[in-house]
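Lab notebook, design round three. We kept the backbone fixed and only want residue identities now. Task for the bench partner: fill in a sequence for the structure below.
Input structure tokens:
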């Protein structure tokens, strides 16, 4: 009975500009996705003779919502619609907090696609996996990029990716977790898009110690207004010596860059 194990990694957003609402209801954004070593643990095991084609077992941090909406299940369903997949059990140990803006759910779905591709020897290339990733979410394509993961400048809905040469090795990245679950849909519904601004790529070329004054996350305004206590997490990172601190994604986690 074959078993395949993988480690879906987290991401942080260095800057997040919401530029405009699109005709399809999504928003055009610009952000830098950077990988973070915090990870979940994903295991896929053959389940010969099982009555269900796919079963998901969750461990670790609680995940809201029904199991059927988990992107690991979605990944299996998308592939099984086009390829013959035998029954499997998926064991997912959550260490990336849901609703934290660290992309854990998207990473789980993306890595599950890759693991299923390997587990069943489907032989699908990155280009062939990409349409499935796009169906699962705008940031899922970042998480199926070949390892070692590197920073990518993202535009469009977050699905247009461009490798971006930026060296974060002189810094350690520390995370802080307010006890909140932030709804991405609510965050986007509350943000005020702004298209007339300096491109993020230009701002990122400045020295890191200048970022505090020039690079922001557009969702912070909404989160700070609805949950005023969250601003203390960002301030605390600066008081501890961070060169740059920000909320990641649509929240609720914060990160700080500290010189090593």
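Proposed sequence:
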């Amino acid at each position: 009975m074959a078993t395949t194990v993988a480690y879906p990694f987290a991401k942080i957003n260095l800057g997040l500009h919401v530029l405009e609402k699109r005709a399809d209801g999504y928003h055009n954004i610009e952000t830098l996705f950077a990988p973070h070593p915090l990870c979940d643990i994903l295991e896929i095991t053959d389940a010969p003779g099982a009555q269900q084609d796919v079963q998901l077992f969750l461990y670790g941090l609680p995940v809201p919502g029904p199991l059927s909406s988990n992107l690991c299940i979605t990944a299996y369903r998308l592939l099984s619609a086009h390829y013959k997949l035998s029954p499997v059990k998926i064991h997912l140990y959550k260490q990336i907090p849901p609703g934290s803006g660290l992309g854990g759910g998207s990473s789980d779905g993306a890595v599950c696609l890759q693991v299923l591709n390997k587990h069943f020897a489907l032989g699908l290339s990155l280009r062939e996996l990409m349409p499935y990733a796009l169906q699962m979410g705008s940031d899922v394509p970042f998480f199926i990029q070949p390892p070692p993961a590197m920073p990518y400048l993202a535009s469009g809905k977050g699905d247009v990716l461009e490798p971006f040469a930026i060296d974060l090795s002189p810094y350690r990245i520390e995370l802080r977790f307010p006890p909140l679950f932030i709804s991405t849909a609510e965050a986007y519904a509350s943000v005020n898009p702004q298209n007339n601004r300096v491109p993020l790529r230009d701002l990122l070329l400045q020295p890191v110690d200048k970022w505090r004054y020039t690079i922001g996350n557009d969702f912070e305004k909404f989160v700070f207004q609805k949950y005023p206590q969250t601003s203390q997490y960002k301030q605390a990172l600066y008081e501890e010596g961070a060169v740059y601190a920000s909320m990641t994604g649509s929240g609720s986690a914060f990160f700080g860059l500290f010189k090593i």
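Keep this in mind before ordering anything: The chain has two domains: 3-163, 171-259.
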